[in-house]
Amino acid sequence: MTRQGKEKLIKLFFLGIATVSILILGLIVVFLFSEGVPIFQEVSVYNFLFGKEWYPTYDPPEFGILPLIVGSLVVTVLSSLIAVPLGVLSAIFIAEIAPVAIRDFLKSAIELLAGLPSVVLGFFGMVVLAPWMQETFDLPTGLNIVNASFMLAIMAIPTISSISEDALYAVGKEFKEASYALGATRYETITRVIVPTALSGISAAVILGMARAIGETMVVLMVAGGAAAMPEGLFDPVRPMPASIAAEMGEAPFRSGHYHALFATGIVLFFLTLFFNLIADYVSNRFKQVGSATL
Questions:
Q1: Fewer CB within 10 Å, N- or C-terminus of the chain?
Q2: What sign results for the dihedral spanned by CA atoms 98, 101, 103, 109?
Q3: Are 262 and 173 in contact (CB under 8 A)?
Q4: 203 to each of 193, 226, 232, how far by Cα in Å?
């Protein structure tokens, strides 16, 4: 076989793999919608999205997922407020400030943190953090928004730090050398040259970290409290959408209204995750640098 023939064969192989991946994703989306849409024969889209009562086993059942949506968004936003500063600052320290030995240690530690199973973090939050919060702040339960947000932040930090670090490494040396040649300090170079140049990748890292948090299941199932009600404070228990799907799918009768409502909740979660990914793609292209700083 000639070299051109081998190249064509390799191209066809990778094209086939990509096609199979897209096909599998398409089939999953079709299945999700086919199982979720029938619920709207029993309840309107408005009442489903903005209803405040989630009692699928009542007679008649109530399928309002607004408390689940609010729980997901509150936990995601609060975890992002914790994870974004820690993730971005750690990436800046590793990429631009830390000595080589410390850099290698911190990089390995963050990668190890990314490898922790979510059930382990959930177990830690349930048996260690929850009792401590309950005793320290005199709370009815330590399984609440703050606990879930802190655990999700730990899970999101490696994603934010790793992608931000790659964006910082992509900044060309000539940018830094030009800044130092003009008399700028290291702090000025980092804050006024390196970070603005890598803003595209850092912004994408932040949004992808938030998408990672909103789609997490096991942690919020174990430590968020499981209360399908509108929260009134940061120490109230909630039930985010992934936790509700995981907790109730095994109990829902096949092809029942409850069953279809859980799939419809998955559709809402799908669109939220898609929204975060579209924002990440837009920000990445909108603020993309050209030349040696391209990422």
A1: N
A2: negative
A3: no
A4: 16, 31, 30
Q: Which residue type occupies 40?
A: F
* 175 half-sphere exposure, CB direction, 13 A CA radius: 22
Task: Say if residues 220 and 5 touch (Cβ distance below 8 Å).
Answer: no
Average pLDDT score over residue span 194-221: 87
Nearest to 35 by CA among 263, 266, 257, 250: 263
Write out the two tokens for 96.
């631009």
CA distance 49 to 130: 31
| DSSP 8-state symbol, 256 | S
Alpha carbon dihedral 154, 159, 161, 163, in 10-degree steps, equals: -170
Q: Cis bond leading into 85, ω under 30°?
A: no
At 21-50, the pLDDT tens digits run 999 999 999 999 999 999 999 899 999 999
What is this structure's pTM?
Answer: 0.85
